[in-house]
Structures are given as structure tokens and as C-alpha cells.
Amino acid sequence: MFELDQFIADCRAALTSDAPHKAVREVVARAVSEPAAVLRALGEPRRAELRKLYCSGELTVLNVVWAPGMTLLPHDHRMWAVTGIYTGREDNIFWRRVPGAASKVEAAGAKALCAKDSEPLGHRIIHSFTNPIPRYTGAIHVYGGDFFGVARSEWDAESLVEGAWDTERTLRRFEEANARARASAG
């Protein structure tokens, strides 16, 4: 059974271990191993959103919902993270900096995550993702720091050149995805 307060307490306790990133992944993996319980606690995804469940200087827990067909540009977090999928699918592309062109990236790998999957991301990882299915995808994201308090980068969709991450622009992308989902459903 998934209980949000206990999940957050378990993530906070995991921070005291010798390998907090690994310990948090175990907490997330255990939670998403029972997707129906997470759905009961967080609700069936009905709109794209980035909902803050907990945030401190050491830990951020988000409920992230991707609209059908939604994509986010390559970006970094500058802190470790763990993603756990409780419904739907998320396709990640992993990127690396192009040698000799420090502000550009090139694709370096990919991984599809489905319900019950969890994936750790190191603090230097650059990734983008797409929800390739025609329904909402729900994921728990846990970050090893204040997700909203750290400057990060995002790479342009066409040129793949680095720029500053803009949280407001990202939140507008969620609303644009909601508008597209409403239009295609209507």
C-alpha cells in the first residue's frame, strides 16, 4: 500500500544512508511496484502537471504527469534523480556534450520506462523524454536537492545549443500539452 507521507519519510530517511541515490531508488522501486496503490493515493492522471509533493534543500518529490504525445527538450538537473513510472510510458533520450563544442549535445542512448519501472539519473545526466502513448503517463520524480532552487540548462530543439532552463516556459509547455489533449479529445 502506498501512503504519500510514509513514502516521503522513507525518502528522507534514505538520505542518511551511505549511498542515498541508491537507497532512494529502492524506495521509489518499491512504491511503483504496486501502480494501483500509487494511483489510488495520487489519483488517475487527467492533465499534464508538475505537482510538488515535498520540497526541501536536500530533497524534492514531484508527481509528474505527461500528456499524450508530450515532449520535453534535452535538459539537465545538476543533482541526482530517480524516476518511477506508475502508469503509462516515458521514452528517454540520453545526451552527451559534443567534444570541442561544449554548448552542443548529441544523442548517446535511450531507454523506455513503463509502469513499475524506476530509473536513477546521475547529477550530470542530460536527457529529454516523450510520452509516446495516447494516454497520460504518471511518474514520481525524486531529486537529491531543491529542484526549483538550482539553475540548470536546456538545449534548443533545433540547434541543440545550450541555454538557461526557464521554469515558467516549462510550465507553459505543460499547459500547451493540456490544450492539445483537450482539442484532440473534443
Secondary-structure blueprint:
Blueprint lengths: L3 H11 L5 H13 L2 H8 L6 E7 L4 E7 L4 E6 L4 E7 L1 E10 L2 E14 L3 E4 L4 E5 L6 E7 L9 E3 L6 E3 L2 H19 L1
Antiparallel strand pairs: 1-2, 2-9, 3-8, 4-7, 4-9, 5-6, 5-8, 10-11
Helix pairs in contact: 1-2
TL;DR?
The chain has helices spanning 4-14, 20-32, 35-42, 167-185, and strands at residues 49-55, 60-66, 71-76, 81-87, 89-98, 101-114, 118-121, 126-130, 137-143, 153-155, 162-164. With 186 residues, the chain is of the alpha+beta class.
Question: Explain this structure to me?
Answer:
This protein has 4 helices and 11 strands; from the N terminus they run αααβββββββββββα. Helix 1 runs antiparallel to helix 2. The model has no long low-confidence stretch (mean pLDDT 96). The chain is globular. By secondary structure, the protein is α+β, with helices and mostly antiparallel strands. The longest helix is centred in the last third of the chain and has 19 residues.
Mean pLDDT: 96
> What class do helices, strands and sheet pairing give?
alpha+beta
The percent range for strand residues is 35-45%
Q: Which regions have little confidence, pLDDT < 50, spanning 5+ residues?
A: none
The percent of residues in helical segments reads 25-40%
Order of helices and strands: HHHEEEEEEEEEEEH
Number of separate helices? 4
- What best-fitting shape do the alpha-carbon axes yield? globular
Give Rg in angstroms: 16 Å
Strand order of the largest sheet: 1-2-9-4-7
